[in-house]
Specification:
The chain is α/β, with parallel strands linked by helices. The chain has 23 helices and 7 strands. The protein folds into 2 domains: 323 residues, no CATH class; 106 residues, no CATH class. Helix 2 packs across helix 5, helix 5 packs across helix 6 and helix 7 packs parallel to helix 9. The chain is globular.
Length: 501
């Protein structure tokens, strides 16, 4: 009698196991939800980037007129100057978000964009190490390093495109290792055609493609480094794809000028780069600097302990990541993208093997973690009112100026220029955070001198400035408050407006 029940017991266990599989949430999905939670916690709960306002105004104006911007139409100090809207395609998703839900829509586009990037980094790391848990562990420093650019920035779409490029290069490398040529690499020219119209980070993508090609030009094996030479067919494919990718850069509304813009910025916009904090070197006294130092130390330590060999291409990408991240804090995001897969591979070697916990217990843990992450995200979504209250912007002051038009030219805080352009038809700013055209004609130099109290009053006279719209606690505000001939006509906790009188 007892033996006759065994088949039914086995059937029952089989059904239970099948049901458990059916309703369990896969571990990668659970880990992805945890990443999304980290993103939600780290992305500022505000429309916190000053560039977003002139980006929104650009997109709105171009859609309204059906033409691309070719001259400055916002400021009075550079009115009519030649100017390219070199990130026009990257502006459109943010404008769509604004039209759908205002500041909440811009915030949603930001969070979704960062989440997509993090999931892409996670996928590349997982591919490298074959362990989703090791990939998640390696993502922790990446999340903190990349927070340098967590905001409504067109740069986010540049990093997305970079991840697509890295995935295509990895496919090609994997196929080459078994003597094949992956045809998906021909998507790169299309990628660069989109990238050139989205963000100037396409130049980094082109450098990476060049390093990838060069790393396979010869067989090499020395110590911990090695390289396998491309076959003749693979090399021809990469050369053709590289040439087509360069040609694709000219598929833009500004012709040859747009591909040259990153070089213009590097060599002609010295004052711009020197004045913006994210173009400065990493500060190891700050949290991100310390995290980057720990990441470098971990890679070095794993290299000593495991003596794993690196391909020449991996070493070249890591060298670019380290140079870029150490030189400009803006590129800590790039360093995180390039170094995380390498860290994940090393972490995986120290991770425990597959768990022996019963499937039901694992299924419960997966579901609980997924539900908890989803709950924390949706329970703490910021309200529209919270997103619209940002102490960085002169919200009340601009509303006042819209109802009390200022006569004559107005000198303004440069980080507020875009906000003024988007929110006020009555004010014409002196400068905004585009910086490039203002450096070309000397406006940026005069602005910096004025706010740093170097011949400030003389500069205001020379520029025929009648009003000053500036931060309440700035040195220039203090100077004008103690200078005869200038009087405050508006003041709040953020801004003060002075006029001659």
């Amino acid at each position: 009698m007892a033996t006759s029940t065994l088949p039914s017991l086995e059937v029952s266990q089989s059904v239970s196991t099948a049901a458990s599989r059916k309703w369990s949430i896969p571990l990668p999905v659970v880990l992805g939800s945890i990443l999304a939670l980290f993103v939600f916690l780290l992305v500022p709960r505000a429309v916190n980037d000053p560039d977003i306002w002139w980006h929104l105004e650009n997109a709105k104006l171009q859609l309204a007129t059906g033409s691309f911007l070719r001259h400055d139409v916002y400021s009075f100090s550079a009115a009519g100057s030649a100017w390219m809207n070199h990130e026009w395609l990257g502006e459109l998703p943010f404008l769509l978000g604004w039209k759908l839900a205002g500041a909440a829509g811009v915030y949603a586009v930001t969070v979704l964009s960062v989440t997509v990037i993090m999931l892409g980094m996670f996928a590349l790391a997982w591919k490298k190490c074959s362990s989703p848990l090791a990939a998640l562990v390696a993502m922790l420093p990446a999340l903190l390093l990349s927070s340098v650019s967590y905001g409504p920035r067109t740069l986010l779409f540049g990093w997305m495109l970079l991840l697509v490029e890295l995935a295509l290069l990895e496919r090609f490398r994997a196929a080459a290792s078994v003597g094949e040529t992956d045809r998906a690499i021909w998507l790169l020219p299309l990628l660069f055609a989109v990238w050139i119209n989205t963000h100037g980070s396409w130049s980094i993508g082109l450098v990476l493609l060049g390093l990838f090609l060069a790393a396979g030009l010869f067989n090499f094996s020395q110590g911990g480094l090695y390289s396998d030479r491309w076959s003749a067919a693979q090399l021809r494919t990469l050369l053709k794809v590289g040439g087509a990718s360069v040609a694709a850069l000219f598929l833009n509304p500004y012709g040859w000028r747009l591909p040259l813009y990153p070089f213009n910025m590097a060599f002609k916009q010295k004052l711009n780069i020197a004045s913006v904090e994210e173009w400065r070197s990493v500060d190891f006294h700050m949290a991100r600097g310390k995290i980057f130092l720990i990441l470098i130390a971990l890679l070095f330590l794993f290299r000593l302990l495991q003596r794993r060999r690196w391909s020449l291409q991996e070493a070249a990408f890591a060298a670019l990541a380290l140079y870029s991240g150490l030189t400009y804090s803006r590129f800590l995001f790039l360093a995180a993208i390039l170094l995380t897969p390498l860290l994940a591979r090393d972490v995986a070697a120290w991770m425990p093997g597959p768990s022996n916990h019963p499937r039901r217990k694992l299924s419960f843990l997966h579901t609980a973690a997924f539900v908890a992450a989803a709950y924390l995200i949706f329970a703490h979504l910021p309200s529209r009112a919270e997103l619209q209250r940002d102490p960085k912007y002169p919200i009340a002051a601009v509303e006042w100026a819209n109802h009390h038009p200022l006569e004559g030219r107005t000198f303004n805080e440069y980080l507020w220029g875009g906000y003024i352009e988007f929110h006020s038809a009555a004010l014409k700013p002196y400068i905004d955070s585009r910086m490039d055209i203002f450096e070309y004609n000397g406006t940026l130099r005069r602005y910096l001198d004025a706010v740093h109290l170097q011949n400030s009053l003389a500069i205001l006279d020379q520029e025929n400035i009648h009003n000053v719209f500036i931060e309440k606690d700035s040195p220039l505000a203090y100077l004008l408050s103690h200078t005869s001939g200038w009087k405050p006509v508006y003041q709040d906790d953020v801004a003060v407006v002075f006029t001659r009188g």
